[in-house]
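> call design_seq(struct)
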């Protein structure tokens, strides 16, 4: 059995992770973490009344008292880096779906993970379909350098653009001809109308209630266009990737960035 703790268990994603760990025969839920819990055990919640799993407010106390093998983190961008660093320093494996990491932070965590010889994973998106969408976009960018990304998420998402959109742009930049899109002398009559600029590519963020996680990568060329789209209609779409990461990180001794790198 793999001993798993879930950080951010009261969030919508964290709640799904808890249910996933409980479903999987080789995973054991040993602790959960919340910023300001009102309960001391998860069995105080009606849905989990038959369980006996302690609730923690402090990550360091959880790590020291429970000593989990894996901590799955779906919290907030403001604490994701410090949480991941603390988990790896303790010697546990971090599986992180929280977004908002800078490239410098990821490099620092990869260095720390290698020093500790602890396998971990940061993934902007755990849905296999989204990973395929990013890989298809990377291939298409070799032939269609004029491309824009539209990512659409629920209105409670704190970071923009999404980690998935940034990761997609990073992957396309590897194969795409470096050109600046749009007309020379292009003027925004309202600042930001053309979206964020990543190496000449534009990224647009939509935030609306009712959405979960959606992304379109739109390519254009003379006389033709190509659109690659992925939709997550329910957060359960991410859970097969989370379960895979919990298991697969044991095979590595460094931090991996992107689910596609362990598929």
């Amino acid at each position: 059995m793999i001993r798993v703790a879930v950080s951010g268990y009261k969030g919508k994603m964290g709640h799904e992770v808890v249910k996933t760990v409980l479903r999987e025969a080789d995973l054991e839920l040993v602790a959960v973490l919340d910023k300001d819990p009102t309960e001391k055990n998860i069995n105080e919640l009606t849905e989990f009344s038959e369980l006996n799993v302690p609730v923690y407010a402090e990550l360091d106390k959880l790590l020291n008292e429970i000593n989990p093998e894996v901590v799955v983190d779906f919290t907030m961008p403001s604490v994701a880096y410090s949480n991941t660093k603390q988990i790896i320093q303790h010697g546990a494996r971090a599986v992180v779906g929280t977004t908002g990491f800078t490239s410098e932070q990821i490099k620092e965590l990869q260095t720390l993970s290698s020093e500790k010889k602890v396998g971990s994973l940061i993934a902007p998106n755990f849905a296999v379909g989204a990973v395929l969408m990013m890989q298809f976009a990377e291939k298409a960018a070799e032939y269609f350098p004029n491309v824009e990304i539209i990512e659409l998420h629920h209105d409670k998402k704190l970071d923009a653009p999404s980690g998935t959109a940034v990761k997609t742009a990073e992957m396309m930049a590897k194969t795409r001809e470096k050109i600046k899109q749009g007309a020379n002398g292009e003027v925004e009559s309202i600042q930001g109308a053309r979206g964020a600029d990543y190496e000449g590519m534009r990224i647009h963020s939509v935030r609306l209630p009712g959405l979960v996680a959606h992304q379109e990568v739109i390519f254009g060329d003379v006389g033709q266009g190509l659109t690659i789209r992925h939709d997550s209609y329910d957060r359960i779409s991410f859970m097969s990737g989370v379960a895979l990461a919990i298991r697969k990180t044991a095979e590595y001794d460094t931090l991996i960035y992107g689910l596609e790198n362990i598929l």
